[in-house]
Amino acid sequence: MDKTTLFDSDLHRTALSQLDTVARRLQLDPNIHERLRYPRRALVVSIPVLMDNGRTEVFIGYRVHHSTALGPTKGGLRYDVSVDLGEVSALAMLMSWKCALMGLPYGGAKGGVRCSPREMSGREREHLTRRYTAEIILMIGPDLDIPAPDLGTDEQTMAWMMDTYSMTQGKSVPGVVTGKPLIVGGSAGRREATGRGIVYVLYQAAKSLGQELPGKKVVVQGFGNVGGVAARMLWRDGCVVTGVSDFKGGIWNGAGLDIRQLQAHVDASGSVVGFPGAESLSNAELLEQPCDILIPAAVASQLNGDNAARIKARIVAEGANGPTTPEADQILRDRGVTVIPDILCNAGGVVVSYFEWVQGLQYYFWKESEITARLQELMARAFTRVWNAARKHGVDLRTAALMEGVRRVADAHKARGLYP
Ligand code: NAD
């Protein structure tokens, strides 16, 4: 049996094929390449939760550490119906490359629970989170593995995780998670970090292409933590946000949407759908609308072999993890579309998570202006490194970013050697 079968999923096949391609380009030591193809450890847990209807439902959860060569592991926790071991393992691998690319002292991890968070009450989500945390408790800790929010989870989820972990230690342990509320040791600017990082990277991309960002037409899929913040900041900076969507569907106005009013509509109704003055359209239609910049900021595999030829955007900024399949990547590349890859484009979240972790360990908190200045510097530097490497090696930005991330992890493995 192929050992990777255990972790099989669309996203894992994509992640493996990216690693294999980059390993060939880097002429990676085959022994190290082989080690990087598997997670270091993976835990599968069942999570019984007493539901509001009096029945006990069992959910399946996962926590995967991909590589620990560079330090403790870091990665989000996802609540979604599509979560499985393959998806979580692939996302853990991507986190290894992302942390290494950004120069952070972390390996990659990811966690997830297969559930429909929007159909659960707050009490049910809290019980799910606390029991999941208890089940994976041996896998997490401030110097072991530090979860953060991802799809379907938020600051409140992190507060419950931190509280549950702290209760088992008999003391408060803020460093066990990042993306916490400010009152319990969160960092200024963490909530906005991923969306803000996307905007910084887009400024660099526009500059490198000899263009101006303000005035560009932008479409954003997903109006959550990542997509909502990116849309608001781009709108505030003079871009014309013509379309956005969420799980219920999309909205479109060729003259531009007022994102502040849209946010108020979402806060009141729970969705972008029904926003006055906008046409409605499906998520699939939204992706194909004319625009300069497309930001997929929801789920994986949205740009694929079926729709890549009809994508009109000239720049795709990957807010989500794995939104473009390898087939779509090839089509977009052939059509001259600039794809800013996930491990670079959405790295603002893990960068400010790192800042939060450092602040927590030192019990010394920075001003938001210091955080945004440091974030901007790291994002701009990483973009320039990747842009120059792509030029030097004659490859696209994804390959260049992966080459740098994979090389650093491989170098760490080489320096440490093989135990025992
Ligand atoms: P979120 O739960 O806050 O928001 C997700 C948004 O996508 C919501 O508007 C939701 O309605 C929409 N959505 C969900 N399923 C959809 C579907 N099938 N079609 C269209 N829209 C859908 O999540 P988030 O934290 O904004 O994460 C979004 C993506 O960004 C994920 O891929 C995540 O892995 C990635 N990401 C998040 C962070 C972070 O800091 N939160 C960091 C890096 C990457």
List the helices and strands and how they pair.
Elements: H1 10-26, H2 30-36, E1 41-50, E2 56-65, E3 73-80, H3 85-101, E4 107-114, H4 122-135, E5 145-149, H5 155-169, H6 193-208, E6 217-221, H7 225-236, E7 240-246, E8 249-252, H8 259-269, E9 279-281, H9 283-287, E10 293-296, E11 315-317, H10 326-334, E12 338-340, H11 342-345, H12 348-362, H13 368-393, H14 397-416
Parallel strand pairs: 3-4, 3-5, 6-7, 6-10, 10-11, 11-12
Antiparallel strand pairs: 1-2, 2-4, 7-8, 8-9
The structure holds nicotinamide-adenine-dinucleotide.
Overview of the structural elements:
The chain is α/β, with parallel strands linked by helices and 420 residues long. It is 45% helix and 17% strand. The protein has a seven-stranded mixed beta sheet with strand order 9-8-7-6-10-11-12, sandwiched between helices. Bound molecules: nicotinamide-adenine-dinucleotide (NAD). Nicotinamide-adenine-dinucleotide (NAD) is lined by residues 149-152, 194, 221-227, 245-247, 283, 297-299, 319-321, 346, 349.
